[in-house]
Amino acid sequence: MPSTLIEKYIRESHLPHIWCAGCGNGTIMRDVIQAIDNLGLDKKDVVIVSGIGCSARAAGYMNFNSIHTTHGRAIAFATGIKMAKPHMKVIVLTGDGDAAAIGGNHLIHAARRNIDLTVVVFNNSIYGMTGGQFSPTTPTGEFATTAPYGSIDPNFDIPELARAAGATYTARGTTYHVPQTIKLIENAIAHDGFSIVECVTTCPTYYGRKNKKGDAVKMLEYQRDNSVSVAKAKTMTAEELKGKIVFGELYVDNEKPEYTKEYEKIIEIAGGRSDE
Amino acid sequence: MAGKEKRLRINARWCKGCGICVAFCPRQVLSLVKDKVRIQSPEKCIRCGMCEMRCPDYAIWLEDIDETEENYG
Question: Does B34 touch chain A (CB under 8 A)?
Fold first, then answer.
């Protein structure tokens, strides 16, 4: 008998999950179910959509309406689900590669439309499942199997990318800051519009080993010692913020119209939906 | 999360021996034995729930004590 939270929301027969020892993905998955529980949502009204990658396995473990889709297309599938069932809470669980590389276009266009999806990005800064290739969020100069001399690519700031594209709720959490991250995911789910929470997670197997970051404990301690809250970051200079993880609510806009509600108006104007 | 009527439970089958709970326990209650978590000093536990919050594998948690059942660990 596991904890009541796990029993309620996780397909127990699928545990232990496939994630490596010390991988932060399990922590984020629990953050998501805790957020759903805190909001008191009916399981029947929640859809979990994932793409491909380590993070994407979460859809299989979570006992909701869930779908494990193709690489990078989770947001595209989720858009379809939301359009067909606007009353449902559609949550996309994706990785940094899945969201910002393979699915980069879907991400920016869903953000542009401000469709009411909640995207939780498991950002481990590397492609874990395929063997540790560098991803769009691998910091410049860091190592990966495909960057044995250090990556020369500048890295994406995913919440900033989404905000620039039109997202109306952006935030960042970490696997160390569990209660704060749960609250951010709660706010993102409750937000009416496109919301994205980047969760900085640990990959001790590839990113950690390639960059000599130590084991899972050392990597969590690194997050603890190198994270600053949004409020504190405002008082710091760009120089002081270098290499820091800024966590908290980054951007909130409650004014911009939500896409499915706008579409509902079109249906009305076109006289498309009869009263049955 | 503090409370008297709780106890620690473990599912060793789910534990992968990452050592996160051992390192972040504020009272050194836990240890790893053959890559599995063990409740070494249950009397020191203050039921803060840190291990449960940090375990990525859901292998350790605080459970409300149920008087009908008596299987510890």
Answer: no
Q: Do A3 and B58 touch (CB under 8 A)?
A: yes
ipTM of the predicted structure?
A: 0.90
Q: Are the Cβ atoms of B55 and A178 closer than 8 angstroms?
A: no
Instruction: For residue B3, give how far its alpha carbon lies from the nearest alpha carbon of chain A (Å).
Output: 16
A182 burial via Cβ count (<10 Å: 0-12, 13-18, 19+): buried
Chosen from A12, A15, A177, A199 to mutate, greatest number of chain B CBs within 10 A: A15
C-alpha to C-alpha distance for A163 and B58, rounded to whole angstroms:
34
pLDDT for B18: 96
Copy the structure tokens of residue A203.
């990959």
Q: Do B52 and A6 touch (CB under 8 A)?
A: no
Alpha carbon distance A136, A127 (integer Å): 10
Range of the domain at B12: 6-61
Q: What is the pLDDT of residues A225-252, one digit of tens each?
A: 999 999 999 999 999 999 999 999 999 9
Residue B21 located in a structural domain: yes
Beta carbons of A22 and B20 less than 8 Å apart:
yes
- CATH of segment(s) A4-270: 3.40.50.970
